[in-house]
Design a protein that fits this description.
By secondary structure, the chain is mainly alpha-helical. It has a domain of 53 residues: 30s Ribosomal Protein S18.
Length: 84
């Protein structure tokens, strides 16, 4: 394989030299609303008010599917008495 003056491979495009097959995801990854466990009220507190009302999509900026999921998780959590 020919080598340029700077020591890099001439036939291999630059982006392929930079990429590696062992790329790792960042260690801190946020959970989607569907992945929030119902036993952790601290994570669900961003979707409710101080008085316990569920915030609408206007304020949570969730899709309709995500909002329905969050709503059902909060209601289930209330029924299990893990969230006040």
């Amino acid at each position: 394989m020919p080598v340029d003056r700077d020591g890099s491979n001439a036939n291999v495009p630059t982006p392929f030299l930079i990429m590696s097959s062992t790329e790792q995801k960042p260690a801190t990854q946020t959970l989607t609303p569907q992945q929030i466990p119902i036993t952790s009220p601290q994570l669900m507190s961003r979707y409710i008010t101080d008085t316990g009302k569920i915030l609408p999509r206007k304020y949570t900026h969730l899709s309709a599917k995500e909002q329905r999921s969050v709503t059902s998780q909060i209601k289930l959590s209330r029924n299990l008495l893990t969230m006040q």
